[in-house]
Amino acid sequence: MTSILNPRAQLLQTISEGLRPGQRELADWSGGPLAVSAVPGSGKSTGMAAAAAIAIARHQLHARRQLVLVTFTRSAAANLKAKVRQHLRQLNLPLTSFTVQTLHGLALNIATRNPEISGISLETTTLISPNQGHRLIRAAVEQWLGLSPVLYHRLIEGRQFDGEAAERLRRQSVLRTEVLPSLAYTVIHEAKSSGLLPSDLATLAQNFTQRLSDDVEDYQVLAIAAGLYERYQALLGERSLIDYDDMILAALRVLADDDIRRLWQTRVFAIFEDEAQDSSPLQTQLLEVLAADPEGLAPANLLRVGDPNQAINSTFTPADPVFFNQFCDRCQQQGRLATIEQAGRSTERIMAAANFALDWMNRSGLSGGEQPFRPQAIVPVGPDDPQPQANPAPLGQGVELARPEQVTDTVKRIAARVMELFQAEPNLSMAVLVRENRQGRFLRALLEDPERLGFDFSHGPPIYDVGQRDRNNQIPTEMLALLQFIERPHSPDALKAALRVLVSRDLLPKQDLNPLTPTPEQFLYPGPLEPPLQAEPAIQARRYCTGLLRSRLELPPYQLIPFLGLTLSYNQSELATADKLAARIAQQTAEDSSLAAMLQALQEIVGSEQFSPIEAEDTESQYMRPGQLTIITMHKAKGLDWDAVFLPFLHERMIPGKVWIPPQMEFLGDFDLAEVARAQLRAHIHAEHQSQAQPIPDIWDAWQQAGNLKKAEEFRLLYVAMTRAKRLLWMSAAKQAPFSWSNPDNLQAAEPCPLLPALQRSLKS
To answer: Region labeled Disordered — which residues (predicted)?
Structure first.
């Protein structure tokens, strides 16, 4: 026995000694709750995998008593699983002693084992796709409009209304297609992810009183939200559909049964959770129940790893970093908070810049009472760290700031610096991180235009535009919208969807589409008594739409998709994807090649989301491939890193920016109903979890809170972007920039993100 144990003990010691101090606290875990707050580039998954293997060996886990590792994406699960398996093979331990699952996969597994309690059976229920979800929300809105005429009329009246018929139609269009679907989507996900039922929301609305100034209308936002939520749930039930939140709720229903709960708790030795800053209250509750001791005699074996400073999804998903921060605070009081603060990713000058940014943004007060960050500095690794090339030498100064005259000058400077780096070290990985995809399109177009750029960039590294790949994924949806309009031009919704595609492809200027869509026939083919269109964007819109309708008369159905690809000015890879889509639909409709049959086939493709685009270049290109320049959004860059990272267009208007009201919605007031509802719900949920009676903010206070939350998240997003760089971080804000990136040639004076001047002073001191 000794001969077997000694080599294993030595291997375990080797694994533990190969970890950094913070990671070692993970490996030393022996039970109970543990919060692990990790800085960017600190090796969270490496520490988790080692800790998992050590726990499996220490507690002799097996198939009937498993360690459960939970991640948020399938790719992260596969990566973590491979690392744990590698350790277990070295230790000669059973591979069945652990499981790695996504949170929703774990919930579905529990729910479908007991369909009589959960109400979910794989044979009778279907998981709703995002496209189905959007259609269901639109249906819920239409039903609510018929059931709630008083609340709807109050919304139409807005702040003031003179009763004019055209304005009424415009407001109805805005409410039906924009305001209410957005409110429904936000509230349904916020409420369900916190365990609130439609009846709970209705009760909350009834008991909610607010004092409003004379210039703010009381629209009863929570009452509207409750009605929309109730209709959505009814439609889900009628169609035997479930969404992702239903999986968690169903699993919790199953675990409410004492015997079943004890059975699961006996099987689960402990839960290790990754990316815990993105958990919703309901997801956290599920993990706490599973990790609890079956007899209730010991604290839950729950180890949660995350970085609250990288929470960048909370303003558009139910993810809320407040709850992981609270878990960290509770664990800290018990001496159970570990911090992984050593990181080997970046050169020291980049880490110093990131630490300065975190501290400055926390002290700035620009996000109101909302402190964006948990105070936590990144420190370099020790001299004996096992990571090869940890804290590498800088490229140039390591951190470089620029203030060009115009955004075109910004791109020229990036191109020149990239060429300089590429010629010196051809295998460097490089990336330009943009805040939105339209910036990426502008950047790529200029890099591929030698005349405007001033030299031929094709002699430099190949460009991999991640946004282009995403745009290819949208092609089936765009084709469906345009073909539905061609088939039903009299439908206001079909007309508006087609116009949205044309605007998103920059074929039409950005404009309020609602005045154009309530009466399609008058817009498309006005009679002699109709007043002529005055605005050039509206005239362009009519010209495009009538051209689309002519194509149905002049072309056979099978030629429509290639024609639409040309109309939308698709590039090479997009046209190839459109051709592939047309070929697939032609194959499916060989016996009936009518437009109606094509639409049905296309709806099935979009609904099932089973269509892979074609890329003109190497389909195996990876985001971080050496010798390549990647163009990617800041959000998509999370979890990745490059030798050199360029952050252009860092203007105050965008980071931290401010919450913005589209002009077509201003008749309701100076706020967004969806964001107001989100802030009100979160205030209620936070109070419940803290067991404190706190009033729900009124419309105006909720709107202010929403603005502060957005600014805090934009600061965290900038921090995430800065910490992607290993050897060079290049940041800039041009003195002149477009007000909107839908029209990048319309330049005006633009202030830099307020961090940049402060960081510039810090670098000089």
So the answer is: 369-396
Predicted TM-score (pTM) of this structure:
0.89
Q: Is 42 annotated as a binding residue?
A: yes
Task: Give phi and psi for 740, each to the nearest 5.
Answer: -130, 135
Distances (CA, A) of 22 to 33, 285, 381, 444: 16, 26, 11, 41
Structure tokens at 175: 């409410």
CA pair distance 525, 508, nearest whole angstrom? 19
Average pLDDT rounded to a whole number, residues 109-133: 86
Phi first, then psi, for residue 629 (nearest 5°) are -105, 115
Sequence letter at residue 64 = R
3-state secondary structure at position 126: strand
pLDDT in tens, 41-75: 998 889 999 999 999 999 999 999 999 999 987 77
The answer to the question of whether 565 is labelled as a binding residue is: no
Question: In angstroms, rounded to a whole number, what is the distance separating the alpha carbons of residues 668 and 155?
Answer: 7
Split at pLDDT 50, 70, 90, the class of 214 is low
Q: Is the pLDDT of residue 616 over 60?
A: no
pLDDT tens for 422-434 read: 999 999 999 999 9
List the helix and strand counts (H, then E) for the chain: 32, 16
Q: Is 41 annotated as a binding residue?
A: yes
- In 678-744, DSSP assigns E strands to 725-732, 736-738
Distances (CA, A) of 189 to 133, 267, 713: 11, 31, 19
Residue 38 assigned as binding residue: yes
Q: Please tell me whether 121 is known to bind a ligand.
A: no
Residue 691 above 70 pLDDT?
no
Distance from chain centroid for Cα 530: 44
Residue 306 assigned as binding residue: no
**Tens-place pLDDT, residues 567-593:** 998 888 788 888 889 988 988 888 888
Instruction: Please say if the pLDDT value at position 606 is more than 70.
Output: yes
Q: Where are the beta strands (DSSP E) in 507-653?
A: 628-633, 642-647
β-pair partners for 646: 432, 730
CB 63 within 8 A of CB 367: no
CB neighbours of 54 closer than 8 A, spacing ≥ 6?
12, 15, 16, 27
Contact criterion met (CB below 8 Å) for 649 and 439: yes
40 among the known binding-site residues?
A: yes
Cβ distance 367 to 708 under 8 Å?
yes
The per-residue b/e assignment along 313-335, b for 16 or more CB within 10 angstroms, e otherwise, is: bbbeebbbbbbbbebbeebeeee
**Is residue 87 scored above 70 in pLDDT?**
yes
